[in-house]
Amino acid sequence: MSKLFFSFFLLSMSWLCSCNPKAYPVETLAEADKNTRRLDLSDQNLTQLPEKVATLSRLTYIDLSNNPQLDWQDAQKTLTSLRKLNEVLLDHNATTDWAQAFKTLSQLERLKRLHLPDNNWKQLPEGITLLKEVTYLNLSYNPLKQEETWQKLAKFDQLETLLLTACSIEALPDSLPFSTKLVTLDLMSNYLIELPSNLSNFKHLRALNLSNNSFDQYPASLLQLDQKIALLMKTNGIKTVPEDVKDNKFTIFDLSGNPLTESTKQQLAEWIQADLLVIE
What does the pLDDT read at residue 86? Predict the structure, then answer.
C-alpha cells in the first residue's frame, strides 16, 4: 500500500467515523452484558426503556432512533443512572416530546455527542440550548429556517463538530455564529453560493465539506485560512480557481465533479499543497 493511499485511507476513515457513529460496532439488547459500551435500541417503537438498560453501567453510547413514542419522563431515571453515557442518537423521532427529551438529556453529566438528523424540524425546538455543552451536534436532514437556527447555534460555544448536511440552507449569515473551537463543519448538499468573510476566525477548523452546493466560484474566504485542512467541494459549478490558493495547505483538496477547465486542472496540479489532490 503506497504512503499516499494509506494517508487517504486514514483520512477517509476518520471522516466516516466522525460523521457516521454506526461505523463502529454496536450491540443489541439481547447481546448486551455488564461490559457493553455501545447499545442499539433503534427502530423498536419503544414507549419505555427496557429494565435491563439500567444495569449497563459501562454504557457510553445509546441509539434511540425511530422511537418517537418513548416516554422521556419515565426514561429519565434510567438514563441519568448511566454515568458514562456521552453519546445519544435520536434520528427519525419527529413526534417526540422534545421539551422533555432535552430536559432529560441535560441531566446527563457526560453527554458530549448528540445526533438529531431527519426529525422534520423547520426550526430548532425550544429547550435544545439546554444542551449547549455538547461538542458534537448532528442536525442533518432537517429543513431548518436559517435565522432562528443561527441564533440558537450561537449558544453552543463548545462545539467542535457540526453537521448540517441537506438542511435546505440557501445562505449563511455574514458572520458565522459557530464556536471558534470548531474542527469539523459539514455543509454538504445545501444551496450555498458563497461563504462568510469571518471564516479565518476558525483557527481550529480541520475539515470542511461544501460538496453538492451551488458554488460557481471558489470562495475568497477560503484563501484566508492559515491552517492545513481537508476541503471537500465536490459537485459544484467551479470552473477556475485563483492562484492565491497555492498559499494554502490541505490534507485533502477535492474538487471532483466540478466543470474545471483543462488549464485550471494543470495549474492546480502545480499549485496545490495537499496530501491528496482530487480534481477528476
Answer: 97
Q: Cell match 496540479: residue?
A: 269
Inform me whether the pLDDT recorded for 63 exceeds 50. yes
Check: CB of residue 108 under 8 Å from CB of residue 79: yes
CA separation, residue 265 to residues 242, 261, 279 (Å): 12, 6, 7
Output the pLDDT for position 176.
Answer: 87
At residue 106, the 3 state secondary structure works out as coil
Per-residue pLDDT tens digits for 70-97: 999 999 999 999 999 999 999 999 889 9
How many CB atoms neighbour CB 50 within 10 A? 13
Please give the backbone phi and psi of residue 93, each rounded to the nearest 5 degrees, phi first: -125, 50
Angle formed by the axes of helices 98-105 and 72-80, nearest 10° = 10
Residue 223, SS3 per DSSP? helix
Residue 102 has pLDDT above 90, yes or no: yes
Mean pLDDT of 148-169: 94
Of 203, 207, 206, 200, the closest CA to residue 233 belongs to 207
